[in-house]
Design brief:
Cofactor: heme
CATH architecture: Orthogonal Bundle
Strand order of the largest sheet: 1-2-7-4
Protein name: Cytochrome P450 family 27 subfamily A member 2
Largest sheet: 4 strands, mixed
Radius of gyration: 24 Å
CATH topology: Cytochrome p450
Structural class: alpha+beta
Organism: Poecilia formosa
Number of helices: 20
Distance between the termini: 46 Å
Keywords: Heme, Iron, Metal-binding, Monooxygenase, Oxidoreductase
Shape: globular
CATH class: Mainly Alpha
Family: Belongs to the cytochrome P450 family.
CATH superfamily: Cytochrome P450
Number of strands: 11
Strand content: 5-15%
Bound molecules: protoporphyrin IX containing FE
Length: about 525
């Protein structure tokens, strides 16, 4: 399918583009710099088609900045960015323009259109310019790192980080250390559960799972256990977790506020402080580990050992780049896996048949509560389906970005100049009822081929649950996709399977339904408390 889409996108590019020349861009920023006339060579297939006039961004429907402000601040969509995607899609169709502070956005919310943008993203795709992140890095003289860096420089860093992070075989090297972190998680949940007044409830599960995420990524990076899941949580861990929260909360706000407001309002100062804390903790851990490595005779590189050892021994990153890469990997590893796991458990607790089925699968592959190996995880399709379904309902990255700087982009009958900022509406796409039957329901079985409720005479209706591949891209796609995908999946699969071996999970008595909210990422709007009852 992806090949087909690629061909379709290439076909669209081959069309001769006839755009009306406008003296002044109808939509500020849309036509600047590049010529509005886009002529492309007439190659064979396109020549047969009638000449088509391509429209410009100015012809897209969309709300004014004033209307957006109204939605964000008066109607309360500021913390419900995911629902704003759906609302605007209903109102304007699958592609519309909007403004977010200084950013002019072209929103795309159908998988077909998202695929077209991604397929034209070029060699060095950029998600979004993060001027405030960049400014902070400049202020402190730090390297830019993956999120801020672009072009061949970004690619160089990725090519160092990728090999040991994204190849399944390489990532399975980290399985034993992740298993030991899961041991700690189980012990920690057992302690909390026993200590609670009813002897079962673990309050604010996501908070515990943050520590699991942090310990997991740190164990992989540093080959050292920090003890985040112990009784006494290291102060640096708390500092880091608080700083992640502050930075993510302030990031969207700081970028909207004019510079002059920084002397009057506390936000920029707090944003800088949060980054100082994040970077400071990472730098300290790297330095500690380096001192340990230097003290160990015979441990002089070769890329053996854990991730940091590998990064340092590759010699392709400067020290400053190692610091910022480690900061970013730790940042990526905390909120993402923890919230996804919390939602998965939240739904399993409310869906007894789903939980039974998952437990039965884990028990049959790993009898006697033996911890699963990575090969055994591969034989647990329902486990993987539960995580997928959770990410479909709650994509932590609910909206992604693409700023295509190398070429112009054609999406359906629209032409966009270089440097157009696209907003890829992951949430709207994965909740689209044209793609997913009963999109608001938690139905892990939709990911298992051939299972469908509309089976006829005992035979499943093939394709009942089929969807466009780009309607579900929680980790992004292409060369800029999530670098932590494999590790995140391994962590979530190991933790969830082992939790299922040990506990029956129940909702708190009388607990309300919990909606997600947006705080840069999509997270639960209130703490998820669950009861953990040991399995007989
Ligand atoms: C449930 C777990 C996770 C989800 C859903 C997720 C999702 C994403 C998404 C959607 C992107 C943007 C990709 C794109 O633009 O195409 C991204 C980027 C990134 N993620 Fe993750 N992520 C997860 C876990 C992690 C973990 C555990 C780490 C760290 C080990 C991590 C590190 C990163 C980094 C460093 C980037 C930036 C990559 C670049 O710009 O080149 N993520 N993630």
């Amino acid at each position: 399918t992806m090949g087909g889409c690629r061909a379709a996108a290439a076909g669209a590019l081959r069309l001769t583009a006839f755009c009306t020349r406008t003296q002044r861009p109808l939509w500020p920023g849309a036509g600047t710099g590049a010529s509005v006339w886009a002529r492309r060579s007439l190659s064979e297939p396109a020549a047969l088609e009638p000449r088509r006039r391509l429209k410009t961004a100015a012809e897209l429907p969309g709300p004014s900045w004033f209307t957006t402000l109204y939605w964000l601040f008066i109607r309360g969509y500021g913390a419900r960015g995911h629902l704003l995607q759906c609302l605007q899609k209903r109102r304007y169709g699958p592609m519309w323009r909007s403004r977010f502070g200084p950013f002019q956005l072209v929103n795309v919310a159908s998988p077909r259109l998202i695929a077209q943008v991604i397929q034209q993203e070029g060699r060095y795709p950029v998600r979004v310019e993060l001027p405030h992140w960049k400014e902070y890095r400049d202020l402190r003289g730090q390297a830019y790192g993956l999120h801020v860096e672009s072009g061949p420089e970004w690619h160089r860093i990725r090519s160092v980080l990728n090999p040991k992070m994204l190849r399944p075989r390489e990532v399975s090297v980290f399985a034993p250390v992740v298993q030991s972190v899961v041991d700690d998680l189980l012990a920690r949940l057992e302690l909390l559960r026993r200590r609670s007044p009813d002897g079962a409830t673990v309050p604010d599960l996501a908070a515990e799972l943050y520590k699991f995420g942090f310990e997991g990524i740190s164990a992989v990076l540093f080959e050292t256990r920090l003890g985040c899941l112990q009784e006494e949580i290291p102060t640096d861990t708390l500092r880091f977790i608080t700083a992640v929260n502050d930075m993510l909360t302030l990031s969207d706000l700081v970028v909207l506020l004019p510079r002059w407001s920084r002397r009057l309002l506390p936000f920029w100062r707090r944003f800088v402080q949060a980054w100082d804390d994040l970077y400071g903790v990472a730098q300290k851990l790297v330095d500690q580990r380096m001192a340990e490595l230097a003290a160990q005779p015979g441990n002089g590189g070769g890329g053996e050992g854990m991730y940091l050892t590998y990064l340092l021994s590759s010699d392709r990153l400067s020290r400053a780049e190692v610091y910022i890469s480690v900061t970013e990997l730790m940042l990526g590893g905390v909120d993402t896996t923890s919230n996804t796991l919390s939602w998965a458990l939240y739904h399993l607790a409310r869906d007894r048949p789903a939980q039974n089925r998952l437990q039965a699968e884990v028990d049959s592959v790993c009898p006697d509560r033996r911890p699963p190996s990575t090969q055994q995880l591969g034989r647990m399709p329902y486990l993987r389906a539960v995580i997928k379904e959770t990410l479909r309902l709650y994509p932590v990255v609910h909206g992604n970005g693409r700023l295509v700087s190398e070429n112009e982009v054609v999406v359906d009958e629209f032409w966009f100049p270089k440097k157009t900022q696209f907003h890829l509406c992951h949430y709207a796409a994965s909740h689209d009822e044209e793609e997913f039957v009963a999109p608001e329901e938690f139905l892990p079985q939709r990911w298992l081929q051939l299972e469908s409720p509309s089976s006829h005479c005992g035979r499943a209706t093939p394709g009942f649950y089929r969807h466009h591949p780009y309607s579900f891209i929680p980790f992004g796609v292409g060369v800029r996709a999530c670098v932590g995908k494999r590790l995140a999946e391994m962590e979530m699969h190991l933790a969830l399977s082992r939790l299922m071996q040990h506990y029956n999970v129940h909702p708190e008595v009388g607990s309300p339904l919990i909606e997600p909210k947006t705080r840069t990422l999509l997270i639960p709007s209130r703490p998820i408390n669950l009861r953990f009852l040991p399995r007989a």
